[in-house]
Amino acid sequence: PAARTKLGLLEKKKDYRLRAHDYHKKQNALRALQKKALDKNPDEFYFKMIRSELKDGVHVIKQPKDEVTPEQVKLMRTQDIKYVEMKRVAEVKKIERLKAELHLLEAAGSGPARHRFFLDTARQVQEFDIATHLDTVPELVDRVYNRPTIATLQRETLRGATDPAHLKKLAQQRKNQYDLLRQRIEREKAMFVITQKIQTRKDLL
């Protein structure tokens, strides 16, 4: 009605219920605090009584100085060593698993992988066909990984094993795995150095 426009919007029932709920919640909290104050033992001792000081009319809790004994320091560093060593061992396992996936045939820094075939006669050398010996097609002879046999090629298309685009994708995946392997090796070395430093500091205590 125009007569009550100055009073603003008319309060809905849901608004009243929310306001009433909030009011009763605050009243209950106040009553709980009052009861706690009434039940409090005046002779009760709190450590805050000796750990607080008055600054500008406000009670401030004094922060106690941490007193760490040499034995506690050694224990903490022992725990640090165990944690770092655990992470390092986990990293070593990941490295070994990644190496297995990459089919690393020789140690780092060695030359390209080679196959040696031993034949008895000169005629066998002349008639020797490496593709036949490896049971694969001539186009895949130079591969040292992911080299399917003829039976495999006949059984399935090998997801485009001879497709240049697929081969390029495989090469990129292999490069990414080698990059990941290098990162993991560096991380493992760094963890080993950290372990040695912690142990040295622990021994000096």
Automatic annotation (TrEMBL):
Keyword field? Nucleus, rRNA processing
Q: Is Secreted found in the keyword set?
A: no
Q: Which GO terms describe its biological process?
A: rRNA processing
Q: Which GO terms describe its cellular component?
A: small-subunit processome
Question: In which compartments does the protein localize?
Answer: Nucleus, Nucleolus
Source domain of life: Eukaryota
The record's annotation in Pfam families points to: Utp11
Q: Chief localization class?
A: nucleus
- What family does the Swiss-Prot or TrEMBL record give for this protein? Belongs to the UTP11 family.
Q: What protein am I looking at?
A: Probable U3 small nucleolar RNA-associated protein 11
